[in-house]
Design goal:
Rossmann fold
């Protein structure tokens, strides 16, 4: 089967879940013996990512606008890729690359499926622009698809305003490749990043309002007197909130440190010395360091205000690290599996969750093992990829 995946970004640093899911899915389909092409924009694709996609035909069009991910040219190449494909998979929603690919799919009469991965709801900036996009072309792209994919059952309802009944949507969750998280030396990660051996709470993601790092920091500061030995590390690129988070940390007598690999943060000249260095901003972490970060952490916190299905839950889970997440992450099954705790997406909710989990640190390793078993049994790409093939097969036969 010839499959064309379309994703406006593969940027491992700034691309978020859309980039990671597109990368992982394409690699898994190719490993399953399918002929896969991946159409994207060239922003943020490094040599390592290209090498990891060596079995995939990667076509990266020039990106002429960094905010709106506008491609420069490429219509002929898009037409070629769509005409040669048996089925086209559109990832995300708010992007022109999907518009061009959907138009080509209609022209060449190729079935296409859409997987918005949580992007159907209007959230954050550019609300007016997004409403205009939907009125002009967005709703038609979704409504005219041959099939629809949600990453969680909770997301299926988001298709209804686009004219798609929730029961018509196929749920295929995010996946994980255990081989990507084999590095397990958490102690080395702590040494390299100036972290002590005391309990570590980890945030992994963009420092952006939708991810809620401010909610986590407020919650941590609220419980810091109860757990003076605990430390908090933010691992992720700046999405516009880094300076504000540093200022908030500094203003509460719990000074923040910016760790440099191989060094130990210096104590501040003033403030409470016992609390110095308890809050760290590590920047983006990838590769084996990402795996070591999860192994180093006692608890991962996902304080998102909105998310379809958190990939970092799977990453932490495969490493055996328990999680505290909000009820906006689309992953309430984690608590039912005994691998973590789900709380409201507020600083008060996160404060209560931190207090409950940090007060009984002996339970955390067991929760981590429960989450690891849960992830291994349900979310490895080796089994998830078959769900795509089961969906694509009838569409291709019908179109043929």
């Amino acid at each position: 089967m010839k499959i064309l995946n379309v994703s406006y970004t593969l940027d491992a640093v700034h691309g978020g879940g859309v980039a990671e899911r597109s990368f992982q899915m394409s690699r898994a389909l190719a490993a399953a013996g399918q002929q896969v092409s991946l159409l994207t924009l060239d922003r943020g694709i490094d040599g390592q990512r290209r090498q990891q996609l060596s079995d995939v035909e990667l076509v990266a069009l020039p990106c002429r606008n960094r905010r709106f991910y506008l491609p420069r040219g490429g219509r002929a190449e898009i037409g070629r890729l769509v005409a040669e494909a048996d089925v086209v998979h559109l990832m995300g929603h708010w992007n022109i690359l999907n518009v061009l690919a959907a138009k080509a799919a209609r022209k060449f009469q190729r079935p296409y499926v859409v997987c918005p991965a949580g992007e159907l709801q209007i959230f954050g900036r550019s609300r007016l622009l997004k409403n205009c996009f939907n009125r002009i072309v967005g709703r038609r792209i979704v409504a005219d698809a041959a099939a629809w994919i949600a990453v969680t059952g909770q997301e299926t309802g988001q298709f209804f305003p686009y004219g798609v009944a929730p029961d018509a949507v196929t749920v295929i969750p995010n996946g994980i490749d255990p081989a990507d998280f084999a590095a397990a030396d958490g102690a080395e990660f702590r040494r390299e990043n100036g972290l002590s051996s005391q309990p570590l709470v980890l945030f992994m993601g963009r420092l952006n309002p939708i991810k809620g790092p401010d909610l986590l920091l407020e919650a941590f500061l609220a419980v810091r007197r109860k757990f003076p030995e605990c430390q908090l590390a933010f691992a992720g690129p700046d999405g516009g909130m880094l300076n504000g988070l540093r200022e908030l940390a500094a203003s509460t007598a719990a000074p923040a440190s910016t760790s440099v690999p191989g060094s130990t943060p210096a104590a501040p000249a003033n403030g409470n010395a016992a609390e110095a260095g308890r809050i760290h901003f590590l920047g983006w972490i990838g590769g084996d360091d990402r795996s070591r970060a999860y192994h180093a952490a006692d608890l991962l916190v996902i304080p998102s205000r909105q998310e379809a299905m958190s990939i970092v839950v799977l990453e932490a889970g495969i490493c055996g690290t328990p999680v505290l997440l909000t009820d906006q992450c689309g992953f309430d099954d984690v608590e039912q599996a005994g691998g973590g705790l789900v709380v409201p997406a507020t600083s008060v909710g996160l404060e209560a969750g931190l207090s409950r989990l940090l007060a009984a640190p002996g339970q955390l390793p067991g929760m981590g093992r429960q989450l690891q078993q849960f992830v291994q049994s349900r979310f490895c790409w080796g089994s998830i990829v078959q769900r795509y093939l089961d969906l694509y097969g009838p569409l291709v036969r019908k179109a043929g």
